[in-house]
Amino acid sequence: MLKLAAILDRICVWAARFAGILLLVLTAVIIYDVIGRRFFNTGSVALQELEWHLHGAIAVLGFGYAYTRDGHVRIDIFHQNFSNAFKMKLEIAGVILLITPFLLIVFWYGFDFTHRSFIRGEGSSGGLGLDNRWIIKSAVPVSVLLALAGAWSVALRAIAVLRGVRETAFNEGELWKS
What we know:
single chain; 7 helices; elongated
């Protein structure tokens, strides 16, 4: 179980690292765009759309990683008073009953959203921007899969702890600390 959790966690880490590389690419694109517009009078709709696409991809590629590092929103007023065992049971129940069904629905519609864009050959509405709009729309189902990987990594680790595996053997997030 911990091996599967570690694999899922590694996938989330790789996606977050890729987002970090995209952040460097985004920085270079913005610098190029600003210098071009300021000094050479070369504005581009496609370049500005690329900036937005990169920004969107960077944001969603970190969902799974954030979940595995306990970087998501909680209602800490209640959560801080719970025992670790109860927190883990609550986490497992949340992953199974809330997160997974919700994300599967989002994946279904996100995949359809992307597929329709691909079939239609959707591009920028003005014709001056980027073609292949399906590429950025594919960030929706990809981010859902990463969020599911992160959530199930955490749930599997919680199950392992509740079954008696030593917490410090794999602890990354605040959820597992005493």
